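Sample A.
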Amino acid sequence: MKNLNLITLIALIAVMYSCHKNNSNNNVLADGTYSGQFTAYTALTSGTTTDTFVIKLAYPSYSSYTSLQSNTVTAQGSYKVSGSQITFTNTILFNVNVDTKAAVNGTYNFKVNDNTLTLTQTTNDYTASYDLKRQ
């Protein structure tokens, strides 16, 4: 009878542990190429813009592009992850007339779910969101 109680207790602990176990893959940002959609909303114009976007991560470096086929870098530099935030430091200087909407720079909230990466940044009345899939 003691053996049965011990086995039952061990089985119960194992079931409880597996139900409460954190998935170590949640919000872990893996190196690789992520591509998808960039969406920006500006309260000033009350409108949204969308575009394609690609970011290549190779910790601690990154580079971003407007398409998988593009050789034109829109941003590059280094990044750091802290909790659910990621801070990109862009080292490219742009001419004032260059459209830099795909130039990732600053601190973003991020979320990883399987092979998808979502980046969101809100500054004043401007929200930028990147919905990307790992290639």
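Sample B, a different protein:
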Amino acid sequence: MIATSVVLLSLLGLSLNLAFSSSLTQPDWAMALLLAGILAKRHNWIWVLPGIFIHDIVLHWSVGISFAVIALIPLAMIYFDQHLGSGLPQRVALMVIAILSLLQPGWEMAAVLLTLCLCVPIWYLLTSLYAQKPA
């Protein structure tokens, strides 16, 4: 249920980015939602990676660096969890690196910062939802 909601909201966010791309500075809605989904639970890669692939194809007309960075996040999370323990600093570093990949296709710095500010509360919300969900 959580995954379906996030995917549908990211498609809505993708539509918002396409509809208002030239008129105002806005965050990358789909990237923030999908990135928060994978940071909340690394096993979400199974539905996040196709979403990021669609995101890159629709918004950037290519499979950009965003897809490559997001695809490496689950592997980096496994490595960090085994060597450093699961912790917030590692997740924040991965989030910042993934969001900075938006600078490559030409996003404004204000839009990148807005995406970062949007990703944090969504990540917090998803993490708390997954914590409440029974195993």
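Observation for Sample B: Residues 1-132 form one domain.
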